[in-house]
């Protein structure tokens, strides 16, 4: 039965249309804007255009639009008429449509004059004109080539519906993981297999190896190592010990300092399993924990402790490029702060600032204003600092410093993993990642790194979440260089390469090798520039393109690496060289202990294995014992046939004596029972006595011949 023809379905459709119409009329009466116009405004905010919008008119979309478009500089403000555009109308200059206002195919960064164009939204075409953005982004003469094809994004591995919605509004096509996506947005680290199979136009929102700073134990290991190398520069985190490896060190420190310690599970999250203590003796020497000195004098606002969630975007690890989002969140504790005492140490609503912990408290404040609430925007914190005469600029440069140093502590691993996973990714970067840095500020305004989240929460439970996280995702998707890769061209090139590789004969390979060798020798001899020098490497070229793209699409991000202040470049340079000074795999006291522990564990496992094997063997022996009788006999015979088994075995005297006794007893019994006599007389009676019987028992024969009853005789 076709459901669409059913009365029920038609009635539902009618009701739906009726309610839609009613809502529209209602909105009109109340003078509210339609969602479509709000959509246009959103799209405009995505574009390079800023207010004031000179005119915003719309008409029903007449026909399919052409893809070609470019902004045009106009000498005078544009005059825009409301018009019903026909499909056959000559191609006017217009901004590229799509769901959003993905602005242009070719961008001249010198455009300051008003631009005009069309936006296609919900089957309606809007003709808009606005002044071009005159932001601080550097002017560039060159023109960036942006891919013609619509980019596709796969968000099926993410639980946040917002990401799909924003991508769609930016003109991305939502596709499944099995399709040829340009971006894969996943909440968890994907497997290495996925990294290896990625095409050159694809990007993923995680870097391989980022776990080095995203797990508490690995982060403390890396930061402790860097602290050892650069004791003056790396005081960016509270003193941390990894138990049980650093148990002795922690106990020693606790004996000499009267401090409160915070203990966390090594890979925990959301405040789970955290507690405070000032007595480390209560911890067992084999417990796996992260032990940290507790920052007992944090910066307080309105008497509450808080921490900062700073969103950082990494667009490349080699060269390292980091951006910090200017907006973020401050998460507040929900009980007023008092320095830890044995009486209040258990009060998690006072000492922990996690949203997941504090939302359970009835004191949780859902206030929407900037200066109240248990979750506030970073801009509100900045305003508070300015009001209280703190140097906000210096504070944020210190935060940037902490973020850079934290990433640098894992940089060798990140770089190595990236090159190992993406050896041929030469068009755009294969990865980007939004990291959530949790930063605690003490009363002197010194920031400390607590934790790094590789998948920060994008839940939008409160208005403040929406105001921060939506623009963050939008700016991230605009900043990443996906659009610079031409999917079709790359696929074509890859196919061609495979074909060439298949068709290339052996001789061709040899010839090309010879030619390459000869040119190398020549260039070395004459000192002539190599091919590399003559034509810039395509990789370098694409990197330059990417940098140009990022610089012109920063949105609300600020670049922190490479540092905007050139004098800081040398300062950070030394941390890049960490591998030259001390290998990250070099032994420290803690790593030795860890290794010892690992060795012990290995031995234990081996012992266990050996025991298990023994048990298995004994079981199989038992099995062998209860083999069928025939098989056992055969086995024994086989053994017997072996030469050595013919040799007489050892006979013990005691055994022999025992055997004789048994034999004597048997003979006596036979005698007493007169078994031999009764059988003999029977055989005699029936005439069956053989000669042997007669010669063996002559007496019995004689008695029987004489007519005696031998069975009754003694
Ligand atoms: P989780 O990953 O479980 O959230 P965190 O390391 O982020 O663990 O710690 C949870 C909360 O505990 C932080 O938000 C912070 O308020 C508090 N905290 C953690 N470490 C310290 C510390 N060393 N000093 C003071 N407070 C801390």
TrEMBL record:
<feature type="compositionally biased region" description="Polar residues">
    <location>
        <begin position="521"/>
        <end position="533"/>
    </location>
</feature>
<feature type="region of interest" description="Disordered">
    <location>
        <begin position="518"/>
        <end position="543"/>
    </location>
</feature>
<keyword id="KW-0067">ATP-binding</keyword>
<dbReference type="Pfam" id="PF03133">
    <property type="entry name" value="TTL"/>
</dbReference>
<keyword id="KW-0547">Nucleotide-binding</keyword>
<keyword id="KW-0436">Ligase</keyword>
<dbReference type="InterPro" id="IPR004344">
    <property type="entry name" value="TTL/TTLL_fam"/>
</dbReference>
<protein>
    <submittedName>
        <fullName>Tubulin polyglutamylase TTLL13P</fullName>
    </submittedName>
</protein>
<feature type="region of interest" description="Disordered">
    <location>
        <begin position="65"/>
        <end position="106"/>
    </location>
</feature>
<feature type="compositionally biased region" description="Basic residues">
    <location>
        <begin position="72"/>
        <end position="87"/>
    </location>
</feature>
